[in-house]
Amino acid sequence: MVELLVGVFLLFMIIGALIALETTDLLSAVISMGAVGAALSICFLLVGAPDIAITQMVVEVLSLVILIRATIRRDLTTIEGDRDFFGLMATLAMICGLLIFGFSAFLRLPPFGSPAMSQSFQAPARQYLNCGLKETGAANIVAAVILDYRGYDTLGEATVLFTSILGALAILRVYSRKKKQ
Amino acid sequence: MNERQPGMSLVVQTVTRWLKGFIFLYGVYVILYGHLSPGGGFAGGVIVASTFILLTLSFGRERALGKLGKLMASELDSFGALLFLLIAVLGTAIGGTFFLNFIEKNWPTGNFHLFSAGIIPLCNIAIGIKVAASLFMIFIILAVIRVQEVRGKRKLITTEKRRKER
Fold this sequence. Notes:
The structure holds two protein chains of two kinds. Chain A is mostly helical. Chain A has eight helices and no strands. Chain A has two domains: about 1-75, no CATH class; about 120-180, no CATH class. Chain A is extended. By secondary structure, chain B is mostly helical. A two-stranded antiparallel ribbon of chain B has the order 1-2. Chain B is flat. In chain B, about 35% of the residues are buried.
């Protein structure tokens, strides 16, 4: 079931990426890239990585806002005339569905003080807390997790920081460009 | 801003002169004791970088760049990242696992010591160097470069050149 759903979303992502490549309108391309990102987030959720899904969603929303802000000055598309009835009804139905989903999800939250992870006995967090000091020798359990158990994650974060500095330097550098002229 | 004397007023400059060493030392403490107390490489690196940002704000750019130049900051940034990667790869070379904690972890004297947690303090130091240098670099890049109208065109320009044109 999960494989089938992931396959459907992968197909959706391929179609969205092709539309983004082929369309001539910049705003449509940006919005189709946003649809691809949202489908990728749902895929992460389906295969059991909720934290990556949240990160992907946040980055996708942020980059969509930035890209729309960047492209909207270039070619502004405005819709003239009245809003059609079907679009309005579809939007309202979508909002109602989201509302019902959010409310039922809120009712199913575990009670305050008993996290969902504590209900399973093989949860990694339990092992970190019980054997963290013995296995790593670090009294600060946060340092033990981010630098020993999850060191690969931290390496990725350091790489993100490094790459962002590289990008900022490459964009804002004026010296060598002046020399060439 | 005053043209002849870069930076802020005498009060700010005096307080900065007294406090900069302590702030730097606190950042180094947070980095070195990251495996024992709250903190670590990221937080301590930000505190160390804030020392240089404070120097830039209160004394002007030349003073801060004299302490830590742009090339030096860029090299420290790369050095920290490479050191972190080297520690990770050494785990593979020695024990066969990426990010293996290959140094003796539990000394007989107990756990709450500065040299206790294997590679974790070394990783904290590498990340601290990297974060401090790269945050200072971001600040310098954003502070030095301005957008200015040159003959009706908007251009990126450094403050040195703008001063020369005046």
